[in-house]
Write a structure and sequence with these properties.
This protein is α+β, with helices and mostly antiparallel strands. It has eleven helices and 30 strands. It has a 17-stranded mixed sheet that branches. Strands 24-26-28 form a three-stranded antiparallel sheet. It has a two-stranded antiparallel ribbon with strand order 18-19. β2 and β3 form a beta hairpin. The longest helix is centred in the first third of the chain and has 32 residues. It is elongated and about 75 Å long.
């Protein structure tokens, strides 16, 4: 009887331990496999604003519309300020401030104020329960929607609520009601123990408060965009200021930008950067260029480009760029820029399947597509197809590969290709180039085309973005690319000659300024819509190349001449065996990357 009880107790202990381990591991495994569906955006900047990567320990000039996620840091200089938006939440930084994004995903938003002034606007109780503001003195939790202010000066934190309620999360915690402000600081009671002290103070009346109140009143204006998109779509607040809404007979709500340059096309005026964990991410130059390039689809309608958000989703899922990649082994064109290949992309149209190029689980594909656009299970096409926007003028953007790898502006390096080349069917799921190619920052051919390698292990990605982000700002322009015809197939294996085509005519790029909003250009001069050619029907079995070469008969080999047997000779003297080549260590020339330490959980931070 005692033995039976012992085995029963042992089984209960093992089952309890396994259940606890599964509960602890499951959320972390899901977080590692699926990227966050929510990101921040640097919306406004005035003066000197810098961006910091805590892994490399270097600062660089901040860039508007660059996505911000966990681990990023912002700093403002004297007489400077910045505005960060995450969905409907707004964080405004005053001069001489430093803010770190400790955690930003679908469940939590944790920000740490190291110094300076911070104003936080929260618009719903649901979002308020997900936000935390941390300083060295205490942790602050908004209890409901409201408007809050934080100032960190020396070793004290001043926290107040213009509207709403703010809880000081501590053993001696309390609630700050609306219209009140408190100073909190730590009083040492030993080497490892301190107590929180507080003093009620008056709300300040200064220039920072005036700026926050003025911008907050502007945000409270009625928005027409909220009828079509959720306020939790990051960047949606810019749509009313820079465009107008209309109705498409098939796709529903459609948004048109007010001012674009002649010949404008989506995903052409900006540059690619590497942002973990997604990899290649598009950063647009337009002040409104965030939501239309990370949600929804683009369509050519009424002789101009329009953005279709799709069905209304309360929490839309962010994507780094909703494009289909063309290039690689299936792109039958070469670019004569140092012998490097070309890479291209085309914006996806409504209902076209988005194929992520980074690590994700199968359910992520359903979440990143709006309802009605989600592909049925196991029906994603894999063969050569023609995307809807391939027949639209300037829709397919092609540049030398180094332009993407080195994070250079795209518009000044676009390659002009024949229309029939642009309309050629492409393979579904074509991946972008690896982050570090033959001409990349580390000078070696990286086999990291797959997303499950790109978003792990590499440590110098953001250092490359900052170093290469200055390209194009000092006036340096890459040589004008030239298109060369593909080499004809010859019977003999002899390298054919390449005949260059006429040089490419490049349009001047728009003025780039991350510190101020550019003045609106003249009204666009849009080209008429080109009639797309019907897509060719692929063969049942398609070779890696998009174009099948014509059948040619193999050359007849020359007759073999048999030589007479040689005369007998003296046996040769034995020679010393040549030395064996040194054995190559597969890991000897590969730099080992240390594993990234796990971020502390919420409970550890509280301790």
């Amino acid at each position: 009887m005692d033995t039976t009880r012992s085995w029963a107790g042992l089984r209960w202990l093992i089952a309890t331990a396994l259940a606890a381990a599964m509960v602890a591991v499951a959320p972390r495994a899901a977080a590692e496999e699926d990227p966050p569906g929510r990101v921040g955006r640097l919306a406004e900047m005035q003066g000197a604003v810098s961006w910091f990567d805590h892994e490399t320990g270097a600062w660089a000039e901040a860039e508007r519309n660059r996505p911000l996620t966990g681990g990023d840091r912002l700093s403002t200089g004297p007489d400077s300020r910045a505005e960060l938006r995450v969905g409907s939440s707004v964080l405004r930084l005053g001069s001489g401030s430093e803010l770190e994004v400790l955690e930003l995903d679908d469940r939590h938003m944790v920000f740490q104020l190291h110094a300076g002034k911070l104003a936080l606007r929260v618009r719903s109780r649901e979002v308020a329960s997900e936000i935390e503001v941390v300083t060295a003195e205490a942790r602050f939790l908004p209890q409901r929607s409201g408007h809050y202010r934080f100032d960190r000066i020396d070793d004290s934190t001043f926290a107040g609520a213009w509207r709403g309620e703010l809880r000081v999360d501590d053993t001696q915690g309390f609630v700050i009601p609306g219209g009140r402000r408190v100073e909190v600081y730590r009083e040492r009671r030993g080497p490892d123990r301190s107590e929180l002290r507080s003093t009620w103070v008056a709300m300040p009346d200064d220039a920072f408060g005036d700026w926050v109140a003025r911008d907050d009143r502007r945000d409270d204006e009625r928005s027409a965009s909220q009828r079509y998109v959720s306020p939790e779509m990051t960047g949606a607040e810019e749509l009313d200021h820079h465009g107008q809404w209309s109705r498409h007979p098939e796709y529903g709500a459609i948004w048109y930008p007010t001012y674009v340059v002649a010949g404008w096309a989506p995903y052409r005026y900006g540059r690619w950067v590497w942002v973990r964990p997604w990899g290649w991410t598009w950063v647009d130059e337009a002040p409104w260029g965030f939501a239309p390039f990370h949600y929804g689809r683009w369509v050519w309608w009424g002789s101009r480009w329009g953005w279709v958000p799709g069905a209304y989703v309360a929490r839309p899922v962010y994507a780094p760029a909703l494009v289909a990649w063309v290039g690689g082994p299936n792109w039958s064109v070469s670019v004569n820029v140092g012998g490097g290949p070309a890479v291209g992309w085309v914006p996806l149209a409504p209902r076209e399947v988005y194929v992520p190029w980074y690590r994700h689980r199968p359910g992520y594909v359903d979440r990143v597509h709006p309802p009605g656009w989600r592909p049925p299970p196991r029906t994603t096409p894999t063969g050569p197809i023609m995307y809807s926007n391939q027949g639209v003028p300037n829709a397919v953007t092609v540049v030398p590969r180094d332009v993407l790898v080195q994070r250079q502006p795209v518009s000044r390096a676009v390659v002009t290709l024949p229309p029939e080349q642009l309309r050629a069917p492409v393979m579904v799921g074509e991946k972008p180039p690896a982050r570090n190619g033959p001409n990349g920052p580390n000078g070696r051919n990286d086999r990291g085309d797959r997303g499950d390698r790109n978003d792990r292990g590499d440590r110098d990605d953001r250092r490359d973005d900052r170093r290469d982000g200055r390209d194009g700002r000092d006036g340096r322009v890459a040589p004008a690319p030239q298109v060369v015809a593909p080499p004809p197939r010859q019977p003999q294996p002899v390298a054919p000659g390449v005949q260059p085509a006429p040089p490419v005519t490049e349009s001047p790029p728009p003025a780039r300024g991350s510190q101020r909003t550019p003045s609106p250009p003249r009204a666009p001069q849009l080209a008429p819509q080109a009639a797309p050619q019907p897509a060719p029907q692929p063969a049942p079995q398609m070779a890696p190349s998009l174009r099948a070469a014509p059948h040619q008969q193999a050359p007849t080999p020359p007759p073999v001449q048999v030589a007479p047997p040689p005369r007998p000779q003296a046996p040769p003297q034995p020679q010393a065996a040549p030395p064996r080549p040194p054995q190559r260590d597969d890991d000897g020339d590969r730099k080992r990357i240390p594993e990234r330490p796990d971020r502390q959980g919420r409970g550890e931070r509280e301790r």
